[in-house]
Design goal:
16% strand; 49% helix
Amino acid sequence: MKTKIQDTTRQAIIYCRVSSPRQEEEGTSLDSQEDACRAYAADHGYAVGRVTREIYPGNELWDRPKLAQDRADLKAGKFQALIVHGIDRLTRDHIHLGVIVEECDRAGVELQFVLEPLDSSLEGQIIQAIRGIAAKIEREKHRERVMRGRRKRVLDGKVPGAGFDLYGYRRDNEAGIRTICEPEATVIRDIFRWIGIEGLGISAVVRRLNERGIAPPSKGKVRFSDGERVARWGTGTLGRIIRQSAYVGEAYAWRYKVRRDKGRAVGGTPRPREEWIRLPDHTTPAIITPDLWNVVQQRLDTNRGEWTRNMSKARQYLLRGLIVCAACGRPMYPEPNRDIRVYRCSSRRSPEGKCGGSSVIANWIEVQVWEKIANILKNPQIIADEVRRRQNEGPDPVMSSDLATARRKIAKIEKQQAGLGARLRDAADDPTLWDLLRTEIAKMDREKAELETMITELEGRLGAQQQLIDRLEALSTYCERVQRNLDSFGFEEQRLALEALAALVTVNGREWRIDATVPTGGADGVISQPN
């Protein structure tokens, strides 16, 4: 039996990807992809030079940092092959696939897929493009059918059948109604009674619910990555409950539109009220009385008005919205503490409770931060040096290369279309060939449109880089203009200066630092202030 000898001159990158941590947990394993790719490399005589493992949606291309590095190294000739378990592990967008295929061809890189061969012939490219277009069309059709079905159900006077049950109810999908879940309904009544009759605030109600160990609506519905965190009540959850009119029998559907980020549903955005659909009264029985509901709503409106008035009368906070907790990364909020102004971590209001980070005295941190910012403004050369650095660095090479590739592909398609157009005139007497050629020209039109969309996106991203340079130049001019008047700056001028530099203060007690969009004397554009 002969042993296959690897050709060490053919160094390969193995690229493995899943869309989310949940996919990895549910068996779409990075390990299994790597094992299959290694076996493929051994069988085909490749030496594995690098294994890249990435968790990122397949419809994204330029936001994948590890893949971007692999592509740059392949174009630089550091590796001779790219091995991927399946086409969908590389990308689900056939336009993006075409960019990578052409990129590999130009660099002399062999692109290999373990599960399916990628035919580089014209016929193979057409098949891959048609498969991609068909899959995309089918996904859109499926989504449209689902939404049409859900809307019809609501218009027929039935409770929507998708999503979690509204807390306090259980859904009867067949009848299209909600029935009261008494244990949860008791909690709803207690919440409204504590606010409307006992006069408790939202934070006090949250503490009482958590102290009594009452399970929140998220119990059993939220998965924590560490597997140990316990679902708890929070002010956001409670706020949604006490504003939910379904608890007095006035239920609406179609209130939210699904919001997606990188292909995943990440929540909902409110629809205009005129798009809401009122459900019949019998679909959602009331849990509390209208009188108690009105008392709670009035109390909420009164509290909000008092809070607004108090904040307008409060002393000004220079770092409002510009300061975060070093312990957990959450925003810190200003809060008067008797005669002392402080910034506290918002984790105090979260379901998980305090993070352990320390509050900071506002007067002290504001003086420290302004002294550091004033030093930056007095030295505009710092910003001028950053402008020159970015100008010398130039536009992002990966995006620039992709832009050039997309433009070449459009030129290639237009040339192919011209040839097919000539054949189309000759095929007037052959209906079958006529239809085939027209279908292919239409397919090329769609591919051109998608490439043009990609070009627009790339031009926008590259343009944003130039905008940053322009912004830095404006900051440099701003520094030169204001440096002579810094000592006389009041609150408004100081605040504008902080916003102009996009300052972000990270603090934990007496330990703090400033992050800004320009280099400020510390590494990586960070100003560090010792204890």
